[in-house]
Amino acid sequence: MQAFDREEYLARIENTKLRMMQFGLDVLLVCDPANMNYLTGYDGWSFYTPQAVVVALAQDEPICIVRGIDRNGARVTTFLDDANIIGYPDDYVQNKRKHPMDYVAEMLESRGLGRGAIGLEMDAYYFTAAGAEALHQSLPNATFKNAYTLVNWIRMIKSPRELDYMRQAARILETAMGVAIDAVRPGVRQCDAVAKIMAAQASGTAEYGGDYASIVPLLPTGIGTSTPHLTWSDQPFATGEATILELAGCRRRYHCPQTRTVFLGKPPQKLVDAGKVVVEGIETVLATMRPGFTCEEVEQIWRKVIARAGIVQESRCGYSVGLNYPPDWGEHTISLRPGDKTVLQPDMTIHFMPGIWQDDWGVGISECIHLTETGAVALADTPRRLIVKD
Amino acid sequence: MQAFDREEYLARIENTKLRMMQFGLDVLLVCDPANMNYLTGYDGWSFYTPQAVVVALAQDEPICIVRGIDRNGARVTTFLDDANIIGYPDDYVQNKRKHPMDYVAEMLESRGLGRGAIGLEMDAYYFTAAGAEALHQSLPNATFKNAYTLVNWIRMIKSPRELDYMRQAARILETAMGVAIDAVRPGVRQCDAVAKIMAAQASGTAEYGGDYASIVPLLPTGIGTSTPHLTWSDQPFATGEATILELAGCRRRYHCPQTRTVFLGKPPQKLVDAGKVVVEGIETVLATMRPGFTCEEVEQIWRKVIARAGIVQESRCGYSVGLNYPPDWGEHTISLRPGDKTVLQPDMTIHFMPGIWQDDWGVGISECIHLTETGAVALADTPRRLIVKD
Fold first, then answer.
1. Domains of chain A with bracketed CATH
2. Closest CA–CA distance from residue B388 to any residue of chain A (Å)
3. Do A122 and B128 make contact, defined as CB atoms within 8 angstroms?
4. Which of A99, B11, B64, B159 allows an S-S link to A134, with CB 3.0 to 4.6 Å?
5. 3-class secondary structure for B235-260?
6. 3-class DSSP state for residue A6?
7. In angstroms, how far is CA B236 from the centroid of its own chain?
8. How many CB atoms lie within 10 A of CB A310?
């Protein structure tokens, strides 16, 4: 049932403890659901109530603290000893008078972990300002440090088994993107195209069932292509308009995202030109990028290609991707942009997403890239061009 | 394109300002995506980066601050004047050296809103501990108050147009639940059942296209029914096992959720009995509940029914529901449980969700209820019983 051998989880926990020691932490409170999953296997749509995995240098095994009714979910999905799975009483849920982090604090105290240096994921989704405040008030003998992305940076380098899941996600993505490109037709309601896409994402392949992607299919169309994050309506696709499809295949919570742009009818020349430039940019990056480059160097390669076409785009053109939960498949570590001097390493996986969003139009073509020992490989195999359905 | 008339948004803003005055606030920073949508219409899958709607007593119109590339999304989806839609530079995104809330603080200062009492949604999703810290540091002349759920409590009473959307969502749910019940068959992979459910949720009806639900279809099966929040795998459904289907129809971000339990084969007597008790509990509550009751009184009605069958269930048996974004369709205001003395009012919509989760089995049957002037009506019409497929 678990996605990885116990040994792989234990190695991740060891790596986390090593970083905790370097960072001067006794205890790390992991609230990012992707990090919770990474360290223990915990999986479930329960992150809408506060929960945490506690890693302590003084304890071999992490402790998983979830809402009481989710305790059996932790039993089913983690490798943890039953004594290390703790459920909090239900009246802590969405109650103005007490906070689940009060309970977490009590539990830490009861295990002798309530003093010393405690790391908090200060900018993680689902770790709220009120949660941090509750901990500060309940644990007066602790000192707190911001350990946001401590585990994320470990997640960035993928193991062979993780790469297997990424490749399985790529197979699912290829199917779903094929369905998506086919579904965008004049007169078809956007919601009906999404129905087919989501069905393909969930069914996956005969061999690999699909998981839910951390972001729903995005398909801004018409004027909507000037911005990347619009979702669908029940309006039909129209001839003379572009649609930017951004979606992922997901397998055991590992994502392979991709973007393609479909034009219905005869596209304006500027779109054709921009499509060519974006493809040239991707292919130049794929041919050049390898371990040893910094993130900003890769962005520079891309920027030079589009500059020749007179296009300036301020936003980052890529980020690390892999294991995740809604609302994001990105890992919040590296970004391909000026100023990011992180050196790329083998077995990173990056969504190279060089979108162009202008005043009233846009184009997006992207690839999920695996950095090998010697170069860069696109994980999914979908025709890489502006798709024109005339 | 907007889901409501401008007048309805303006009335919501007025209500918000009234509560702000009662609460002693000059400015309210709204980061909950549902509240942002409620006040301005803003809609998009951009809540994975920090964003805010600023309501100030000194300003007629709210200000919407989003990531630069999402600015056009705000132009397309809100009624706001262009001057009140502000995009922050892209290098604020996931950057250890600065935080988007630093930018929000600058913008508040530049408009003279950086002093006085500022309300923060301290426990809202997507308003992180680091975001609160950035604001505290950047606005030394402000005082901060926790205004979590200030807007949520306004959202709790639904307008006629909102009830229309809830009813449309109910039509979508009826279709999707029908598909779901049909799809659970021995040998069918869970992921293939989900494919059909998600397709039905997105397509909706010929009249009403579906939106994405804030929670993916939950369908714990077998031992998984002992806990409510497991998602699917690619394992097949098996004869002799129960599956608890919890899913929603969603229309313009308004949800109608429902739960049904399907058993494949001949169910054990305890499950048959528990199913009957849950249905009796729901029907007793539907026949009794009306405006004027408190939340805890409703829970007591339910508890008495199951107590007669010897069942004790600690978790709350319902909560307010409506407009929302992942990860939750609940509104984080009222809960049907001991201690909640909120008096029920007409045009509240409540997910009455009396799940029973025991050591190694469970049953869930639920309804989304509209509180009318005189009573309670289930919004969706799906056969209300343990569904046995023998």
1. 6-155 (3.40.350.10), 160-389 (3.90.230.10)
2. 24
3. yes
4. A99
5. CECCCCCEEEEEEEEEECCEEEEEEE
6. helix
7. 30
8. 8
- Give per-residue pLDDT as tens, B204-235: 999 999 999 999 999 999 988 888 899 999 99
| Chain B residues in contact with A319 (beta carbon < 8 A) | 94
ipTM of the complex: 0.97
Long-range contacts of B269-273 (CB under 8 A, 24+ apart): B270/B361, B271/B242, B271/B361, B271/B363, B271/B386, B272/B386, B273/B309
pTM: 0.97
Query: Which contiguous run of DSSP H or E holds residue A53?
Result: strand A52-56
d(CA B91, CA B100): 9
Residue for token pair 């193991």: A159
DSSP B284-315: HHHHH--BTBBHHHHHHHHHHHHHHTT----S
- B chain contacts of residue A338, beta-carbon cutoff 8 Å: 91
Q: pLDDT, tens digit, for every residue of B128-153?
A: 999 999 999 999 999 999 999 999 99
Helix (H, G, I), strand (E, B) or coil at B171: helix
Element (H, E) at A330: strand A330-335
The one-letter amino acid code at A181 reads I
CA A238 to chain centre: 31
In tens, the pLDDT along A247-269 reads 999 999 999 999 999 999 999 99
Give the pair of three-digit tokens for residue A101: 């982090």
